[in-house]
Amino acid sequence: MNEPNDNSVISAMRTTLASQRTLCTNEGAVSAEIRIDRLSRAIDLIFDNRDTIVETLALDFGHRSSHQSLMSDIYATIECLKHSKKHLKKWMKTEKRKAPFPMNLMGGKAKVEYQPKGVIGIIGTWNFPLNTVFAPLAGVLAAGNRAMIKCSEVTPQTGALLETLAAKYFSSDEVAVFNGGPDVGASFSALPFDHIIFTGATSIARHILRAAADNLTPVTLELGGKSPVIVSKSYPLQEAVERIFTGKILNVGQVCLSPDYVFVAEDQLADFCTAADSYICNLFPTLRENPDYSSVVNERHYQRLLSYLDDARQKGADIREINPANEDFNQQQGTHKIPLTLIVNPSDDMLVMQEELFGPIICIKTYTAVDDCIRYVNARPRPLALYYFGKDKAEQRHILDSTISGAVTINDVIFHVSCEDLPFGGIGPSGMGSYHGHDGFKTFSHAKAIYTQSNVNFQKLGGMLPPYGEKCDKTLNAMIRK
Question: Which residues are catalytic, by number?
């Protein structure tokens, strides 16, 4: 069977959008029961096919830890869907608001009703091909919308599987999945959706925004950046190392929230690097054939990371590769593994300090005072996350008040994303808007303001109708005050 070409996919996308929009308009109110049913089917889709999804992810990556796929793409996504399913009836309730005097007299009242926006476009990315489309889908379906999904072309086998599974568990008028290259992606983002959520690179996000602007489509952007870690001298160094590098090895750093560079007190640098080496060697005695150590996704990203290392090497960097068994990674069959690599006190002109690493490389920088770290972070684009390890409450408060980031995890890394009751999103170059839990429901809902007027005509009683006169003056004098 021939695969569909881009033109046929683009045509199908337009047809599907038109059909979904018509049904949204004709459907009216979407009951909690319909929303729960759709969320339940999304959960079934993932749970019933979890082994196949994990196997397909490994094929796309060359090799990917099955346990990490189960943790990050399967478990985390099901939890998002379950949370929305559990709470959506409460989220759907009408919110009473206060009307001002005298609008609140004699039956006057104000309220907000949350209404589905319509058809939501979801554009996922390759590092977590399931989670980056089905986690937003939780909020989309909870809010009563229909959805169209564009999968990443970097993980084509997973995208094809999700397209097949979506057609099995959903009508295309409820949830439809599309695959294709950059032309399909560009056409998808240019469709007149009622909202678009994109997860991916900042460079691509600029194209998404430009395309959406023609339709005035609201956009939520989940991007990335260089997430810093500040390790205070008040925190046990060994524990900090274990938590930082446990986060770093997830998908070998191919995570938008992965710690990118770590600030360590000057006099603790040697101990920190030694502890990191020991910890990684204990977790992974070997790397090349180790099923727990994942591969970089493809040749292009493999070469990108090698170019960062070459650039740092040429500029005199202190590069420390953690290769426990001294294995040769030059000739690999079907994988693109790179040992976890520390770059100690890199200069700012190195690519490793200019680009988001998104791989098994981490920079270690020393500091003498915490304010040095704050100044460094604030002089750069606002990160998706900031991580602080410390037991000094005053210092912690100072860092929270003095920096701006999408989110903060204290005494660990990444974990805030697992709190479904917290909004997840960035700021500035690291993102725009947020979702997860109740915040996702609100993002994908239209908050419709409704005011019911009193039976009494207060404008007429107060002389607020032409011809204006003394009665109007008295009313206005009574109303206008400090």
Answer: 222, 256
